Amino acid sequence: MEKTKDKIATIILYIISSFVILLLVGFISYILIKGKSALTPSFIFGEPKFTEAGGGIGPQLFNSFYLLIVTLIFTVPLGIGAGIYLAEYAKEGRMLDAIRLSIETMASLPSIVVGLFGLIVFVQMAKWGYSLIAGALAITILNLSSMTRVCENAIKAASKGVKEASLGLGATKWQTIRRVILPIAMPQILTGVILASGRIFGEAAALIYTAGMSAYPLNFSNISLIDKASPFALTRSAETLAVYIWKVNSEGMLPDASRVANGASAVLVLMVLIFNFSARILGKKIYESYTGKR
């Protein structure tokens, strides 16, 4: 009787897993099929046209990648640092309870609320205006709670069995964390980075109020972090691909709005897939280099 129940449960779990995979494959296939006609070099790397057909998504694509890099520069160190503190240094008490309550509260915040907070604090009070740095900080607030929880759980799981051994061999606590625990926890931490990256690629509501909806022409000969004419300026408005898709569908000013939206959606999905696979491969290489596995 128990064996029969076990087989039934196993079959049900396999069916659920297969359904999830088929749902994802169907979703990705639908978007790629709808947008494949627009996947040309002139569309992917070209400048947008706001009053006529035939424009591209080059600036928005660059803005999405650049925003990803800037946001991860803030999110990853803060998330790993908070995870290390909660897993290895924090002691039970009111302070820890307050931190965990804050993390849980931040995780439940709607992105539109974070966007309005970024508008008030980063755009208006800090006087940065609609800028890439304001958008990056707003997305960091959205991602910080999930990144912290993933890092904390990864560090706790990795420290079992190796922490005492490392300390027993004479290593300090920080040496143990840096040289033993973090390399072992790297695959799970990388999962948190990938989840955060997906949020960065796909977020629109928070970025409308912080990064803005303007796409500057790309002039890569001008390299500056403050000159708004430079693609690398942190102070310029930076319309991402997700925001552009929303704008094209909501305004309806382009004669080929449907083609642009479908093509941009297909590019966005491909970006996420390529980044996920690349991050997995890179994370595996880093893990192998630390653990000596080949």
From TrEMBL:
Transmembrane segments: 12-33, 65-87, 99-122, 128-146, 189-211, 260-279
Protein topology in the membrane: Multi-pass membrane protein
PROSITE patterns linked to this entry: ABC_TM1 (PS50928)
Superkingdom classification of source: Bacteria
Keywords assigned: Cell membrane, Membrane, Transmembrane, Transmembrane helix, Transport
Classification via Pfam families: BPD_transp_1
Domain (ABC transmembrane type-1): residue spans on this chain: 61-279
Coiled coil: none
Keyword Membrane among UniProt keywords: yes
Main location: membrane
Cell compartments where the protein resides: Cell membrane
Presence of the UniProt keyword Membrane in the record: yes
Family: Belongs to the binding-protein-dependent transport system permease family. CysTW subfamily.
PANTHER family: ABC TRANSPORTER PERMEASE PROTEIN YQGI-RELATED, PHOSPHATE TRANSPORT SYSTEM PERMEASE PROTEIN PSTA-RELATED
Protein name stated in the entry: Phosphate transport system permease protein PstA
Organism lineage: Bacteria, Bacillati, Bacillota, Clostridia, Eubacteriales
